[in-house]
């Protein structure tokens, strides 16, 4: 047999188990592309693409109740790099902000000792990226600096706060869900706590709706739903509802819709309400029929108006909002009554819900919004992905759903003729803009399960046993579950390996009234999973098995019972060798001796094999013996072992209740009693024994350890004062005399040569979990099973197991640029964005003239290799244009700010270039005339709010007012609708509403006069000037809204916008400009707004840039990007503008980008950009060539010739 060595390289890690109920809300999917999940007091970081755990963070002492990734909506550079920052909060009120890559804590925050209810990072990111808002029970909100841990302010409210939601369109709006209702805060800022107590809104429970009380089947569906809605109208009130109306306590969740401004969603177990906050009125309901499965959670999408809902059976459904534009051919006016209808478009399979398996939460990928992860209470994470399939239209037309359209563009621009694309890149590439009817057939969606992370609690295989009789086999090198075997019918008590691929395990049932149990001892073969009862028919109604011990050569097995003599078995043949006599002493601890006569065994085996081989070979074949002797020996080996039961002599020692040590020898089926050693007076009852080489260690129930040196015949007792010694184990490896000792309250590692303690672990002091079992997994690492269902591999020092993410070996490579050093991540991005120095795009960084350490190059190349083939082929496709590339790379990096910038830039660059082709002279800074908008590219989504085209924005606002009008239920609502209609210029509808005011209403007279005024307004000079005078007086006296209305009546909306801006109502002014003004006037208003956003006290330059993009002020955008030192974005943007021919060159930006590339080490790129910068880049070019000339003098002339030819 050829000796071979195994070097098992094991990383310290934690394998987690089932999830605690308090961990239920603790899961988050970040823009960084990773999922963070709380499991007891640890936090798992999961990569959803390869479904593997890549980091476990351990520092909390209590259960983790919330985790939140920081947002990525800021410009990334070397000074503000891509970093993995995570905030986590636990049930003892501690918040930790982590640097996930290194596994260390940035800072720890503690205010009260109660569980944190909710927390989130602030998203208005031009100010500071470190601010974290948290709800400390019962009723405080506190703003923290997440980098330093300092408290900025604290504010208390009257009711208990359950959760909160930021308005994704306006950073000063915040809604708190309290135990009694909702509190709206409109003056939220990082500088000071909100001044007012907020506006309280009470919501009566919608349980009175007929969807629950009447059987709906009797009535046709639409009327049932309508009745339900009419009931829902009266839900939202500003007064506290009477006692009998059930209040908000069964509202599960509140969140703003990221797809439409001023809309909010409330989730109840049986319905989802969509509120329009301008009216505080329900405009849509998604209700479940009586037989349906209730909701647990809902996640609204931003890219399309769609909802992902999680139901109690673990089913995830996708509901997409039906287009509101009613088709003209509907004759029945009742049918065109609108409400927001969310059609069910897709659902995934449910899971089998049991007592221990319940769905907890879903999270949706924020970058693409087309994958979901479901956390199940048994610790599994199921990863689902949404796929679209196109079908023939005819089949679907009768289903009553409005059709969905597939988009015609990819990454913001129309597809080229032969261009490759990724079909299901993200939600908005799967569902097109509804207004744009495309020739392609509508898509059908389905969920596909993409990965399953099954984490459950316990060679490089480690075994863990569970209460339900299953045994889990882990591969410790990868940390993945290898197999789950269901072996026993009751709790597993112990496991012993009997070969490299098989083990014995035993379980005992609960005792009957005689104290007897059913013992199960099973032999399990790991590769096949076959198991059989090792003791045959034995096992019913007998005393419980206390322990099983297999000898070192895996020949014999000792089974020790509670009140009955032990049994000795032969493991290889499965036969009972001896059952000890009745007078045999009671065993308290037992251990096999490691010193066995292995040499004599080998000699015997070899002789037997040769004899067997001789019998097999006849004399005629004698000549060819030499060649085939090895194979013959192998054949003979198995026969010989069985025919002559060859066995080596082995010994074991055990102690009885008095502490006397017995020594027994076993050979074949002969058992000899050896020496007896009298008890040591200092020791109590012996609980366990360990033996290695010449050292024997005894541990007793009082916490004393006794070290025996068998060669020198010395013994030495050490009291540890830690109570009962549960288990002692020697470390594997020749000459390794380390010893692991387990107590009820922790564990210690001892060095038996020096007889001193090496390290210690105490429950309560170092760790919060209790240790159930412990063992060595390599010569320097220990593995322990704890009561929180986790298996931990620790270094010998037994310190916590957070590790550096970039140092560990993963089974599958993970695409996550955030793991690279800041400089390397920026280089990788530059490499993917543009490679103009070569004709073909390469994915091999080694082919580029890139000056960097090989180690870092290797890491970047690993990242490139881990990209999927689809993405690689799209990136290498020559048809992919610059805008598409920028958008795709920002998606890959999960860079929120890049994505927003390039989406808006791509849209407006194309529409302005298109207008130019039609020879419509468009002065810079004015949106193009409406006629020029028939691009094949459609409009920006409404989730971009004021950045959309005016015509589309206007249409959306009209539809919305129409919806509000249908839903209004009180005079307040009617008045608001009339005001909106006047601002939108819909005077006839407004007059009708004003005339509805009833005579007993105090404002009856006022409204009637207003109606008369609106209808009789003429454009004669005097009446105009009077109204204007009245309006300005009103505004001066604090009646801003009324004054603005009057100005809009006489078509002086531009003045109205100016007044609004003067009084600080910037958003309102932008809204009005979009819906009422002609392009030139509207452009002036928005430019003033952009200037205001750039001012130092507002400091929202990134927003200002988006506003300027929507106006087509491309030159100004280029200059601003350059002045904000966003060199790569500036250079690529200017390059794209040059391609579309909508602006001139800004040379300085190109030069700066070339400098940035040079500092990164990408020399070819630097030369290229510097040469394109015209005059501005000459100086830098000279520097570059000097540097190059110093390295290699001869190549200089060729370089310059090449350069001239490129220029």
Fold and architecture overview:
Residues 959-1138 form the WDR11 TPR domain. The chain is of the alpha+beta class and 1207 residues long. The chain is built from 26 helices and 58 strands. A five-stranded antiparallel sheet has the order 14-15-16-17-18, with no helix packed on it. The longest helix is centred in the last third of the chain and has 22 residues, at 896-917. It is elongated, with a radius of gyration of 38 Å.
Number of strands: 58
Roughly what fraction of the amino acids lie in strands? 25-35%
Helix content: 25-40%
Specify the biggest β-sheet: 5 strands, antiparallel
| Sequence stretches where pLDDT stays below 50 over 5 or more residues | 1-7, 206-234, 242-248, 326-336, 393-400, 434-441, 455-460, 618-628, 922-937, 1192-1207
Distance between the termini: 70 Å
Radius of gyration: 38 Å
Strand order of the largest sheet: 14-15-16-17-18
Instruction: Indicate the structural class.
Output: alpha+beta
So what's the overall shape? elongated
What count of helical segments does DSSP give? 26
Mean pLDDT: 78
Write the layout of secondary structure elements.
Layout: E1 13-15, E2 27-29, E3 35-39, E4 42-47, E5 52-58, E6 64-69, E7 85-90, E8 94-99, E9 104-110, E10 118-121, E11 131-136, E12 140-145, E13 151-156, E14 161-166, E15 174-178, E16 182-185, E17 199-203, H1 210-213, H2 221-232, E18 236-237, E19 253-256, E20 263-267, E21 271-276, E22 281-287, E23 295-300, E24 306-311, E25 316-321, E26 342-347, E27 359-364, E28 371-376, E29 380-390, E30 409-410, E31 413-414, H3 427-430, E32 443-454, E33 461-465, E34 470-475, E35 480-486, E36 492-497, E37 502-508, E38 519-525, E39 531-533, E40 545-550, E41 556-561, E42 567-570, E43 575-579, E44 589-592, H4 598-616, H5 625-643, E45 650-655, E46 661-667, E47 670-677, E48 686-692, E49 695-700, E50 704-709, E51 714-719, E52 725-730, E53 738-743, E54 746-751, E55 756-762, E56 771-778, E57 781-786, E58 791-795, H6 822-833, H7 854-865, H8 869-875, H9 882-893, H10 896-917, H11 950-967, H12 971-984, H13 987-995, H14 1004-1016, H15 1021-1036, H16 1040-1049, H17 1053-1062, H18 1066-1076, H19 1079-1094, H20 1101-1111, H21 1114-1123, H22 1127-1140, ...
Antiparallel strand pairs: 1-58, 2-3, 3-4, 4-5, 6-7, 7-8, 8-9, 10-11, 11-12, 12-13, 14-15, 15-16, 16-17, 17-18, 19-20, 20-21, 21-22, 23-24, 24-25, 25-26, 27-28, 28-29, 29-32, 30-31, 33-34, 34-35, 36-37, 37-38, 38-39, 40-41, 41-42, 42-43, 44-45, 45-46, 46-47, 48-49, 49-50, 50-51, 52-53, 53-54, ...
């Amino acid at each position: 047999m050829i000796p071979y060595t195994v070097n098992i390289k094991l990383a310290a890690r934690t394998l987690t188990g089932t999830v605690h109920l308090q961990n239920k809300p603790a899961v988050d999917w970040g823009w960084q592309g990773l999922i963070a999940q709380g499991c007891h007091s640890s936090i798992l970081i999961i990569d959803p693409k390869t479904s593997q755990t890549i980091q476990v963070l351990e520092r909390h002492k209590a259960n983790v109740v919330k985790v939140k990734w920081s947002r990525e909506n800021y410009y990334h550079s070397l000074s503000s790099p891509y970093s993995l920052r995570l905030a986590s909060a636990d049930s003892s009120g501690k918040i930790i902000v982590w640097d996930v890559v290194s596994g260390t804590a940035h800072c720890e925050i503690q205010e009260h000792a109660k569980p944190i209810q909710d927390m989130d990072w602030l998203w208005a990111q031009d100010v500071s990226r470190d601010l974290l808002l948290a709800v400390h029970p019962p009723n405080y909100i506190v703003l923290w600096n997440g980098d330093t841990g300092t408290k900025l302010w604290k504010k208390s409210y009257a009711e208990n706060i359950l959760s909160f939601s930021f308005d994704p369109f306006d950073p000063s709006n915040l809604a708190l869900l309290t135990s009694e209702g909702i509190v709206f805060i409109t003056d939220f800022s990082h500088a000071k706590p909100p001044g007012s107590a907020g506006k309280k809104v009470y919501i009566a429970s919608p349980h009175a709706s007929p969807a629950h009380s009447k059987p709906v089947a009797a009535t046709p569906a639409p009327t049932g739903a309508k009745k339900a809605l009419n009931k829902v109208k009266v839900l939202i009130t500003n007064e506290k509802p009477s006692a009998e109306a059930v209040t908000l306590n069964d509202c599960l969740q509140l969140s703003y819709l990221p797809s439409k401004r001023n809309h909010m969603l409330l989730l109840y177990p049986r319905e989802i309400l969509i509120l329009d906050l301008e009216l505080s009125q329900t405009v849509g309901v998604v209700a479940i029929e009586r037989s349906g499965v209730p909701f647990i959670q809902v996640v609204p999408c931003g890219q399309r108006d769609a909802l992902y809902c999680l139901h109690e059976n673990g089913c995830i459904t996708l509901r997409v909002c039906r287009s509101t534009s009613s088709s003209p051919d509907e004759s029945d006016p009742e049918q065109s009554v609108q409400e927001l209808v969310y059609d069910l478009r897709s659902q995934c399979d449910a899971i089998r819900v049991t007592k221990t398996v319940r769905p907890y939460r879903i999270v949706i990928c924020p970058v693409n919004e087309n994958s979901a992860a479901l956390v199940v209470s048994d610790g599994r994470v199921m990863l689902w992905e949404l796929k679209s399939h196109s079908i023939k239209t005819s089949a679907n037309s009768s289903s009553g759903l409005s059709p969905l359209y597939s988009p015609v563009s990819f990454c913001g621009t129309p597809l080229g003729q032969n261009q490759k694309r990724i079909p299901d890149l993200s939600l908005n590439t799967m569902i097109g803009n509804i207004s744009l009817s495309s020739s392609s057939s509508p898509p059908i969606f389905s969920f596909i399960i993409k990965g399953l992370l099954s984490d459950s609690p316990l060679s490089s295989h480690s075994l863990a046993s569970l209460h339900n009789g299953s045994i889990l086999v882990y591969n410790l090198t990868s940390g993945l579950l290898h197999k789950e075997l269901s072996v026993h019918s009751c709790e597993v008590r112990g496991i012993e390996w009997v070969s490299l691929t098989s083990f014995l395990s035993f379980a005992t049932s609960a005792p009957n009234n005689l104290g007897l149990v059913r013992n199960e001892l099973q032999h399990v073969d790991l590769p096949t999973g076959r198991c059989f009862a090792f003791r045959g028919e034995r096992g019913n109604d007998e005393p419980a098995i206390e322990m099983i011990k297999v000898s070192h050569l895996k020949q014999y097995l000792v089974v020790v019972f509670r009140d009955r003599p032990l049994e000795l078995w032969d493991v290889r043949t499965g036969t009972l060798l001896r059952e000890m006599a009745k007078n045999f002493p009671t065993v308290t601890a037992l251990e096999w001796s490691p010193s066995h006569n292995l040499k004599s065994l080998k000699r015997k085996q070899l002789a037997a094999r040769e004899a067997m081989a001789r019998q097999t070979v006849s004399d005629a074949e004698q000549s060819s013996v030499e060649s085939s002797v090895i194979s013959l020996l192998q054949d003979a080996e198995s026969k010989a072992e069985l025919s002559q039961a060859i066995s080596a002599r082995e010994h074991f020692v055990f102690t009885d209740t008095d502490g006397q040590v017995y020594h027994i020898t076993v050979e074949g089926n002969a058992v000899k009693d050896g020496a007896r050693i009298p008890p040591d007076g200092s020791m109590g009852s012996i609980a366990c024994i360990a033996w290695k080489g010449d050292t024997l260690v005894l541990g007793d129930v009082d916490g004393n350890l006794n070290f025996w040196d068998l060669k020198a015949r010395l013994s030495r007792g050490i009291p540890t004062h830690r109570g009962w010694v549960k288990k002692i184990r020697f470390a594997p490896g020749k000459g390794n005399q380390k010893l692991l000792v387990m107590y009820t309250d922790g564990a210690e590692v001892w060095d038996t040569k020096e007889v001193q303690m090496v390290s210690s672990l105490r429950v309560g002091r170092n760790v919060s979990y209790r240790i159930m079992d412990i063992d060595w997994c390599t010569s320097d690492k220990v593995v322990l099973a704890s009561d929180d269902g986790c298996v931990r591999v620790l270094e010998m020092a037994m310190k916590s197991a957070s590790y550096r993410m970039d140092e560990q070996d993963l089974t599958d490579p993970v695409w996550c640029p955030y793991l690279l050093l800041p400089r390397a991540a920026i280089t990788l991005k530059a490499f993917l964005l543009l490679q103009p120095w070569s004709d073909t795009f390469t994915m091999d960084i080694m082919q580029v003239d890139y000056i960097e350490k090989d180690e870092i190059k290797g890491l970047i190349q690993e990242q490139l290799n881990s990209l999927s083939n689809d993405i690689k082929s799209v990136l290498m496709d020559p048809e992919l244009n610059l805008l598409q590339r920028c958008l795709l790379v920002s998606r890959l990096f999960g860079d929120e700010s890049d994505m927003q910038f390039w989406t808006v830039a791509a849209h407006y660059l194309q529409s302005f270039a298109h207008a130019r082709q039609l020879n419509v002279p468009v002065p810079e800074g004015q949106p193009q005339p409406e006629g020029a908008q028939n691009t094949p590219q459609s409009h920006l989504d409404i989730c971009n709010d004021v950045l959309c085209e005016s015509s589309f924005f206007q249409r959306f606002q009209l539809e919305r007012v129409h919806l509000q009008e249908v839903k209004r239920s009180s005079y307040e609502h009617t008045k608001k609708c009339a005001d909106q209609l006047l601002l939108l210029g819909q005077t006839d509808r407004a007059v009708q509403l004003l005339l509805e005011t009833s005579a007993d209403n105090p404002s009856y007279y006022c409204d009637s006069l207003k109606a008369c005024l609106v209808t009789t307004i003429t454009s004669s000079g005097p009446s105009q000037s009077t109204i204007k005078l009245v309006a300005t007086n009103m505004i001066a006296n604090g009646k801003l809204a009324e004054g603005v209305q009057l100005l809009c009546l006489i078509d002086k909306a531009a003045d109205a916008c100016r007044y609004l801006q003067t009084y600080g109502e910037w958003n309102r002014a932008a809204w009005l400009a979009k819906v009422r003004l002609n392009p030139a006037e509207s452009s002036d208003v928005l430019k003033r707004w952009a200037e205001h956003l750039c001012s130092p006290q507002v400091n929202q330059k990134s927003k200002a840039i988006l506003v300027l993009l929507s106006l087509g002020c491309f030159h100004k955008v280029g200059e601003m990007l350059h002045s904000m030192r966003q060199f790569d974005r500036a250079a690529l943007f200017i390059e794209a503008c040059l391609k579309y021919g909508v602006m001139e060159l800004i040379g300085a930006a190109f030069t700066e980008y070339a400098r940035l590339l040079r500092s990164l080490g990408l020399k070819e790129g630097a030369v290229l950009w510097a040469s394109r910068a015209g005059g501005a880049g000459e100086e830098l070019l000279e520097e570059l060539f000097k540097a190059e000339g110093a390295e290699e003098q001869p190549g200089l002339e060729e370089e310059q010739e090449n350069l001239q030819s490129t220029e």
